[in-house]
Amino acid sequence: MSQVSTASGHAPAGHGAHEAHGAHATSMHVDSRKLGVWAFIGSEVMFFAALITVYLIYKPRNLANGGPDPKHVLGIGVTSVLAAILLASSVTMVLALAASRRGDRRQFTIWMLSTAVLGLCFLGGQAFEFTELIAGEGITMSTSMFGETFFILTGFHGTHVAIGVIWLLATFFKVRAYPNSSENVMDIELAGLYWHFVDLVWVGIFTIIYLMPDFAPAAEMLFFHFHL
């Protein structure tokens, strides 16, 4: 069986990675790069939470001004498929990391590339949805508050997916170019952390915007109270 990552000719992938990352470890024995990725994810979670809140706050104002009703213009069919695609990509990402830890280069290649391809499929589906809204419904960022907040929120997430695909492919080609590098397992794990974050964000967006279009949290009640 070919090896994805080894510290030497006799060391398994996972063992070599832990030794090599001793220089990166913090006093808590956590890789500093992993802490950095977690910190970045934490900041992005707050940013997405803010975007979702803005969308919910302005939804009643959009309807009051005669803007499009999300229940009537958003198709749950396509977005359900997109949600399934991203959830499947999380599974393939887990399998890619597991293969790298076993040193199974062939399985790593299959699952890592599958994850990237699923990400590209999601982006293609999102582009289709945007085209339908713009060409079919005449909704753009300038036509209504719904269009502005919806495209900013989902477009920002799509940008994160695109960044994730680039990260996955860059990691894949690095591992293929340097199969004996002890950094490989950690590199794959970091890419996986980001990818799972992107997937979970979409679950939140899909649930609140598509599955629960009549969702009326405190954000909407604040709108009516303060007449924003």
TrEMBL record:
PROSITE patterns documented for this protein: COX3 (PS50253)
Location of the region described as Disordered in the Swiss-Prot/TrEMBL record: 1-23
Homology family: Belongs to the cytochrome c oxidase subunit 3 family.
Cellular compartments annotated: Cell membrane
MF term (GO), any: cytochrome-c oxidase activity
Bilayer-spanning residue ranges: 35-58, 73-98, 110-130, 150-173, 193-212
SUPFAM superfamilies: Cytochrome c oxidase subunit III-like
InterPro entries attached to this UniProt entry: Cyt_c/ubiquinol_Oxase_su3, Cyt_c_oxidase-like_su3, Cyt_c_oxidase_su3-like_sf, Cyt_c_oxidase_su3_a-hlx
Membrane topology: Multi-pass membrane protein
Any one Pfam family match given in the protein's UniProt record, by short name: COX3
Protein name per Swiss-Prot or TrEMBL: Cytochrome oxidase subunit III
Family matches, as PANTHER family: CYTOCHROME BO(3) UBIQUINOL OXIDASE SUBUNIT 3, CYTOCHROME C OXIDASE SUBUNIT III
A GO BP annotation: aerobic electron transport chain
All copies of domain Heme-copper oxidase subunit III family profile, residue ranges: 1-214
Keywords, sorted A to Z: Cell membrane, Membrane, Transmembrane, Transmembrane helix
GO CC aspect terms: plasma membrane
